[in-house]
Design a protein that fits this description.
9 helices; Beta-Lactamase; alpha+beta; 2 domains; Phosphatase 2c, domain 1; elongated; 6-stranded antiparallel beta sheet
């Protein structure tokens, strides 16, 4: 049997010890653990193996400013006191550039990481290993202050390099798992928000022997910034509204809910509400309680079947489209300022006379600005022609026709904006 030298025996023992530590780390962590728990486990085992007083893992945050590229994710220590250690700019820059192991037992006199008074902060020794993934530098595993005054050794350097290589994938997977968990929770919450927002929409259309008022809404995202409302004031009078809130997503959805709530509260118990007063109240509320970037374009009014008139206010919205039975199309262009931009705005009521067979249509730009695969817009003229060509259809059939032609026009292109339309038909 060949003899083994003392040096070889020592090297084998060190290798066995390293493998044993790596095995303990691997056994102690699993994918269901939180990222915080995983990093603490890694740091704790490394501190014990190398006999360093303290350790930390710094993960790279790509969205941060260059001065704050690394965020301390966990610190652990085997002593009573905790040194508030962060990667300074010199150490950050060195790691970002070289992506290799750094060992410094005299950091104050180390030209590679100069710029800080390490001794004043209690740092005597630094050993740092990059955490590399296929996408690049993930972070840095750092140990500070070896238990002995001589500082970290080449064996410590070798060990930390092995650990950094082995645990990088685990940390990356844990990070992705946490992000996916957060995303799944957000999607669940957005699903609930969508149900709540749909609940704000009218549950019934206004249908009688003499007229129909129907609406339709389809959000491009989980929640949207479009809304419509239909509210019977009496047997012959119906309030209707349609609006488009600036922006998308949850902020826009919250504002649509507030706008609807304000309108409904002001309409409660009134058979003939003052539209201009309603517009002024909503405008002041949006102006005073939202940011300057938030505003609403809207059309809201009252259909009175006794005299077959529509009284409405256009607050910066697309003009309504009125199509007569004989195919004449009108777009009343009078409009006031959008809601929520200035505190004092004069809103004016517009009154239209309707005849049997006439249709009054209001809609959001999710229709006119729908894009096809060639990035061409559906357009207002195309929509006007659609309404004229299918004017003999009922309000329900006409809405179905609008949705069909929009879907055909888009083809495989995604729906880019919320689609909302409201029709008033005099039978």
């Amino acid at each position: 049997m060949p003899e083994i030298s003392d040096a070889e025996l020592t090297r084998m023992k060190q290798s066995l010890d390293e493998l044993s530590t790596l095995n303990r780390i691997a056994s102690a962590i699993n994918v269901s653990m939180s990222l915080d728990h995983i990093t603490k486990t890694i740091v704790d085992h490394c501190c014990r193996r190398v006999k360093s007083e303290q350790g930390a893992i710094f993960l790279l945050e790509q969205e941060d400013t260059p001065e704050e590229r690394f965020k301390t994710f966990v610190r652990d220590t085997s002593t009573e006191g905790l040194i508030p250690f962060h990667l300074n700019l010199s150490l950050q820059g060195w790691m970002l550039k070289h992506r290799s192991i750094l060992l410094s037992n005299d950091p104050d006199n180390d030209d590679r990481i100069h710029g800080s008074n390490y001794a004043k902060g209690g740092l005597r020794h630094i050993l740092a290993a990059p955490l590399l993934s296929r996408k690049g530098l993930l972070g840095v595993l750092t140990l500070i202050n070896k238990g002995s005054e001589d500082g970290f050794t080449s064996q410590d350097q070798r060990f930390l390099g092995i650990v950094g290589t082995q645990v990088s994938k685990v940390i990356e997977n844990a990070r992705l798992f946490e992000r996916e968990t957060v995303l799944a929770e957000m999607e669940k919450e957005m699903g609930v928000a969508r149900i709540i927002q749909k609940g704000f929409l009218p549950q019934d259309n206004a249908v009688s022997e003499g007229f129909e008022i129907l609406g339709y809404n389809d959000s491009a995202k989980a929640v949207g910034g479009d809304y419509y409302d239909i509210l019977k004031l009496s047997d012959s009078r119906v309030f209707f509204s349609l609006g488009d809130v600036s922006g998308k997503g949850l902020p826009a959805a919250l504002l649509t809910g507030n706008a609807q709530a304000v309108m409904r509260s002001r309409l409660h118990g009134s058979e003939l509400p003052d539209l201009e007063e309603l517009a002024d109240c909503l405008n002041k509320l949006i102006y005073n309680f939202t940011s300057s970037e938030q505003y609403i374009t809207a059309i809201f009014g009252i259909y009175d079947h006794d005299d077959k008139t529509i009284s409405y206010i256009n607050a910066g919205h697309l003009p309504p489209l009125v199509v007569s039975r004989d195919g004449e199309a009108k777009l009343p262009s009078d409009a006031d300022l959008v809601i929520g931009v200035l505190p004092e705005v004069k809103f004016n009521t517009i009154k239209l006379s309707m005849k049997p067979g006439d249709k009054f249509c209001i809609y959001t730009d999710g229709i006119s600005e729908a894009f096809n695969e060639a990035q061409e817009q559906f357009g207002e003229k195309r929509f006007e022609k659609l309404m004229v060509d299918h004017r003999d259809k009922s309000a329900r059939e006409l809405i179905d026709q609008i949705l069909k032609e929009l879907a055909d026009y888009r083809g495989l292109a995604e729906q880019s904006d919320d689609i909302t339309v409201l029709l008033v038909e005099v039978k």
